[in-house]
């Protein structure tokens, strides 16, 4: 029987958040200065939360493992951030953003949370503009918008292909203001290795100073995890190399339920793998699908000739190209959701139509957009629209203004000019929809322990729509958590400082030191990367874009064996009381080796296809995902020792404001 309480407020959907804010308990300014909050992670979620909580008067301790808060992985987000402002006058609204998000997530997200996200989305843009975020603007000075996959409106605000960087710098500047005031104490190069639970409440963390190796105790009245997602479980991904699951996984082992671990996103527009030497993959923003057309050759012999270098893609005539997304999904075309676009690319490549040497790539072609924009500009300027050299020159200038840094990045990596020849792309692991289970207030199943941004599961269901990650991170940090955490902390105004001399801190620190000692003294023969790569191959081959019962069961056993081998045979050079990146990496991989088994277990028990979770046994005649109504719930796993022993709890998903039907983008 489920023990989950989502704490969704009563009342009409559109009024839940407003009424909830109006009735929850508050902490007075005089009392806020006596309350400490730890925030782990300084990306868009953690950074915005730290800045806002400190602005309100709380004492904040912010932790990141990077050398600076501005190096959080949020900086890598390229394409934009959604908000239902309807600047384009194309019919957007709060309800439509809510509807698109629930539908895009294949009806596997919590209705109340998603509607709140849509409501506060408009506030985010105003906040960021006030901070000086340089969003793109139209000729008249208004903020510009572009479209992303899974929607029929333009609601994505952007700053070229650097949106994440610009938004993070806004949050970072807000943090710095509070650091200067002394309201935020910043701990860079620190990694959280455990949560400390006192009398059933989260009261602090154990952290390791990554420069000195020192183990530190930090106490607080509440702990907030904004530590990002776990996609590096697959080894090759678009995540930063340091991104990991450790903070969330340690919280899971202390009682926080882990929700929907098998819901990970495969992004369709990444630079393809070039060989075994690679340690990460590079994303090409989904915004490119606004103007780029995706295709493969219609004929197998043409695909083979392109792979062998005997035929250039620009020399293949239009009638011999298969614009397969436009063919299959005429209503949305190249802007279908990420899960749909990714599976379609895999299907074409598996059928033999891939266009790079490995056969795992499709084309993203801007030639038509360059000509279209060029002719428009020539017309506006009164120039010859039939002068193709002029048209292409003008068109390239427009494309460069919109996507220039992305084109530059592609050329540096692939050594091909995407203005002259189509980009090559292929799906890659990009985002984790799963994460720590949280209620409506963003609290985990451990009182006083919160999870925000990608670290929680709450808003995206089985598939995240493009440009919604930045929206959720900033919504949680700027506009949701600062309200809801006060309701909890109102009971702590007389608690006083939390001592780090409590026996619970002793026990947690001892556990951390024992684990580190075990790793550093193991004296095995294989590197940490050896095990990470092996885990990644198991995950990609058997828990990746397509899954089936047989291979998921095999993955569970193979990961268990690999985990046992890791603890017997991993070798870590250096010492524990010094800067030792290999030791830090070993701890993260150890956690991945546990999460991987739970991931496969979750995917095995979810006998349906939905969003990014595609079970080969459950698909339509046309190869589309086939949902099953009996799986309309959130899977929340309770830690009980080994991952295979985790206890499964279910939160039913009830839709009162949206009709659940087969998702179609045709």
Main features:
17 helices; FAD-dep_OxRdtase_2_FAD-bd; Flavocytochrome C3, Chain A, domain 1; five-stranded antiparallel β-sheet; alpha+beta; Methane Monooxygenase Hydroxylase, Chain G, domain 1; transport; 19 strands; five-stranded parallel β-sheet; 666 residues
Alpha-carbon distance between the two ends: 39 Å
Number of strands: 19
**Which strand order spans the largest sheet, edge to edge or round the barrel?**
5-2-1-9-17
The CATH homologous superfamily of the domain at 267-429 is named Succinate dehydrogenase/fumarate reductase flavoprotein, catalytic domain
Global mean pLDDT: 96
> How does CATH name the architecture of the domain at 267-429?
Alpha-Beta Complex
Outline? globular
Low-confidence stretches: none
Number of H/I helices? 17
Instruction: Give the CATH topology of the domain at 267-429.
Output: Flavocytochrome C3, Chain A, domain 1
Strand content: 5-15%
Structure description:
- 39% of the residues lie in helices and 14% in strands.
- The protein has 666 residues and is an alpha+beta fold.
- Among the domains are: 267-429, Succinate dehydrogenase/fumarate reductase flavoprotein, catalytic domain (Flavocytochrome C3, Chain A, domain 1, Alpha-Beta Complex); 502-651, Fumarate reductase/succinate dehydrogenase flavoprotein-like, C-terminal domain (Methane Monooxygenase Hydroxylase, Chain G, domain 1).
- The strands form five sheets. It has a five-stranded parallel sheet with strand order 5-2-1-9-17, sandwiched between helices. A five-stranded antiparallel sheet has the order 11-15-14-12-13.
- Helix 3 (44-56) packs parallel to helix 13 and helix 15 runs parallel beside helix 17.
- It starts with 12 loop residues before the first helix and ends in a 14-residue tail after the last strand.
- The model has no long low-confidence stretch (mean pLDDT 96).
């Amino acid at each position: 029987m489920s023990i989950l309480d989502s704490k969704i407020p009563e009342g009409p959907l559109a009024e839940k958040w407003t009424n909830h804010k109006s009735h929850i308990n508050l902490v007075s300014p005089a009392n806020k200065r006596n309350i400490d909050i730890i925030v782990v992670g300084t990306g868009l979620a953690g950074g915005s939360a730290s800045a806002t909580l400190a602005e309100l008067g709380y004492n904040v301790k912010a932790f990141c493992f990077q050398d600076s808060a501005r190096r959080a992985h949020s900086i890598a987000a390229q394409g934009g951030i959604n908000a239902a402002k309807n600047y384009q006058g194309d019919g957007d609204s709060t309800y439509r953003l809510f509807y698109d998000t629930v539908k895009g997530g294949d009806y596997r997200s919590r209705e109340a949370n998603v509607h709140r996200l849509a409501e506060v989305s408009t506030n985010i843009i105003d906040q960021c503009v006030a901070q000086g975020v340089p969003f793109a603007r139209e000729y008249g000075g208004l903020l510009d918008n572009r479209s992303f996959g899974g929607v029929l409106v333009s609601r994505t605000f952007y700053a070229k292909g650097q949106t994440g960087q610009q938004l993070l710098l806004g949050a970072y500047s807000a943090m710095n203001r509070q650091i200067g005031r002394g309201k935020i104490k910043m701990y860079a190069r620190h990694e959280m290795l455990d949560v400390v639970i006192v009398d059933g409440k989260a009261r602090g963390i154990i952290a390791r100073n990554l420069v000195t190796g020192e183990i530190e105790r930090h106490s607080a009245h509440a702990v907030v995890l904004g530590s990002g997602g776990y996609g590096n479980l697959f080894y090759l991904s678009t995540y930063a190399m340091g991104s990991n699951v450790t903070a969330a996984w340690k919280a899971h082992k202390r009682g926080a339920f882990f929700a929907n671990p098998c819901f990970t996103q495969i992004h369709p527009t990444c630079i393809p793998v070039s060989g075994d030497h690679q340690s990460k993959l590079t994303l090409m923003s989904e915004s490119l699908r606004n103007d780029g057309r995706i295709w493969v050759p219609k004929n197998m012999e043409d695909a083979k000739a392109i792979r062998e270098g005997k035929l250039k893609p620009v020399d293949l005539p239009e009638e011999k190209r298969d614009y397969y997304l436009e063919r299959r999904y005429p209503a949305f075309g190249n802007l279908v959701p990420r899960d749909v676009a990714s599976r379609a690319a895999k299907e074409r490549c598996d059928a033999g139509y891939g266009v790079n040497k490995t056969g795992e790539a499709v084309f993203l072609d801007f030639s038509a957009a360059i000509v279209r924009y060029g002719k428009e500009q020539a017309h506006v300027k009164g120039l010859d629209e039939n002068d193709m050299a002029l048209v292409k020159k003008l068109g390239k200038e427009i494309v460069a203004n919109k996507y220039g840094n992305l084109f530059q990045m592609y050329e540096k990596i692939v050594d091909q000019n995407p203005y002259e020849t189509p980009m090559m792309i292929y799906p890659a692991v990009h985002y984790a929809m799963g994460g720590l289970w949280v209620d409506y207030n963003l609290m985990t199943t451990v009182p006083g322990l919160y999870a925000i941004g990608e670290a929680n599961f709450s808003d995206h269901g089985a598939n995240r729509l493009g440009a919604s990650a930045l929206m959720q991170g900033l919504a949680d940090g700027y506009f949701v958590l600062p309200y809801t955490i006060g309701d909890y902390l109102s009971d702590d105004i007389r608690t006083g400082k939390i001592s780090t001399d409590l026996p619970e801190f002793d026990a947690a620190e001892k556990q951390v030191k024992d684990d580190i000692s075990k790793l550093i003294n193991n004296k095995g023969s294989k590197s940490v990367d050896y095990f990470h790569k092996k885990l990644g191959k198991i995950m990609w081959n058997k828990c990746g874009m397509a899954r089936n019962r047989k291979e998921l069961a095999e993955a569970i056993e193979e990961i268990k064996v690999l985990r046992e081998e890791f603890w017997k045979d991993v070798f870590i050079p250096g010492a524990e009381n010094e800067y030792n990146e290999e030791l830090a990496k070993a701890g993260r991989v150890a956690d991945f080796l546990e999460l991987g088994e739970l991931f496969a277990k979750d995917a095995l028990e979810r006998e349906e296809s939905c969003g990014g979770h595609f079970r080969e046994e459950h698909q339509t005649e046309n190869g589309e995902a086939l949902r099953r109504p009996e799986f309309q719930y959130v899977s929340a796993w309770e830690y009980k020792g080994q991952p295979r022993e985790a206890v499964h709890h279910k939160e039913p998903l009830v839709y009162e404001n949206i009709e659940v039907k087969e998702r179609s983008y045709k």
